[in-house]
Amino acid sequence: MHIVTVIQARLSSSRLRGKVLLPILEKPVLLRMIERVKCSKLIGNLVIATSTNPEDDQIEKLCSENSIECFRGSLNDLLDRHYQVALKYNAEAVVKIPSDCPLIDPTIIDKVINYYLETNFDYVSNLHPATYPDGNDVEIFSFNALEKAWKEATKNYEREHTTPYFWENSDLFKIGNVVWETGLDLSTSLRFTLDYIEDYYLIKKIFEELYPKNKFFLLKDILNLLNEKPDLLKLNEKFIGTYWYDNHLNELKNIQEYKSKKL
Predict the structure, then answer these.
(1) Distances (CA, A) of 221 to 105, 203, 225
(2) E strands, 17-161, where?
(3) Which end of the chain is more exposed for a tag (fewer CB within 10 A), N or C?
(4) Inter-residue contact 57 to 117 (CB < 8 Å)
(5) What is the torsion angle, in degrees rounded to the nearest 10, for the CA atoms of residue 155, residue 157, residue 162 and residue 164?
(6) 3-262 maps to which CATH number?
């Protein structure tokens, strides 16, 4: 199966502008994340999908300088951006990973992709419900499912966030989910995603602590570090449990159900 993995990235983030170019150990966040994603064995073609906004020329330049595939599309219609990438690269399945996950564990990426390959689902993620610490977000869906969503999704948040149409219409798609094999649920108690400057401080510190010892550190290494130095968690603790969909809870039926099951 031809898989295309898409990391969506832009500089005009509303919460932390230019976050993907912030430096970590003398390289931009985006390159550090790509380095980790490339450790996955199942990602297929890796493409950075950015916008045609002139500001994002910097992302295209960064990709060109580092021999990384780059596609440019709609600034706000991420569903269209992913669909156009899938068309260009003849994808049979598309993996969606947001660029605000620089600490993502490549073994988790492979676990989600492998589950998709072994089953007959249209859409598989580790998010519905989530159990991994926030910032290990992986979604994979068939081209046919993507095309259906691209044709039928009309709400702004469905277009901007690419995949809500799938999990909000579970009667139209076969939906699968991967849970953390440890049996733990740290999705609402740890935050490794990059939306605020405080998130950056934590992520940067984790890289500085672990990367010099092992460039390919995993989630277990991060957890061990935080057990040894729990004060690090204070850096972004005020944003734990904050998600993009908080402003759409009155519209998102399935998110409400997932959240209520966890309470």
Answers:
(1) 10, 13, 6
(2) 23-24, 27-28, 45-51, 69-73, 93-98, 123-125, 139-142
(3) C
(4) no
(5) -80
(6) 3.90.550.10
